[in-house]
Amino acid sequence: SESPAGDLHSRSLVYFRMGRFEDALADIDAAFKIQPETGDFYYLRGIIRSWTGDAAGSAQDIADAKYIDEEVPEIYDMMGIKAK
């Protein structure tokens, strides 16, 4: 196991792929509490928020992710994970 935050991020991805957006959001928020200021976490939360109808939160998270690590969007694109 990489880390508690990393494990939560991984489970959040699984929930997202299952369409369990509220569970995915709960896990990524918990990961943030352990390891804030992580571009990967911001980006995933932004994508999840886009699927829950939080357009403003989604845009802010995606912008923050790109500010922290401009390569994060490319990683998610390769996994086929995109905003709605």
What is the N-to-C succession of helices and strands? HHHHH
Mean pLDDT: 95
Number of strands: 0
Radius of gyration: 11 Å
Q: Could you give the distance between the termini?
A: 30 Å
β-strand amount = under 5%
* Most strands sheet: none
> Which regions are unreliable across 5 or more consecutive residues at pLDDT < 50?
none
The number of helical segments is: 5
Structural class: mainly alpha
Structural write-up:
With 84 residues, the chain is mostly helical. The protein has helices spanning 4-18, 21-34, 39-51, 55-68, 72-79. Helix 2 (21-34) packs antiparallel against helix 3 and helix 3 runs antiparallel to helix 4 (55-68). The chain is globular and about 25 Å long. The termini are far apart.
Strand-helix topology:
Elements: H1 4-18, H2 21-34, H3 39-51, H4 55-68, H5 72-79
Descriptive keywords:
globular, 0% strand, 84 residues, 76% helix, mainly alpha
Short description:
The protein has 84 residues and is mostly helical. The protein has helices at 4-18, 21-34, 39-51, 55-68, 72-79.
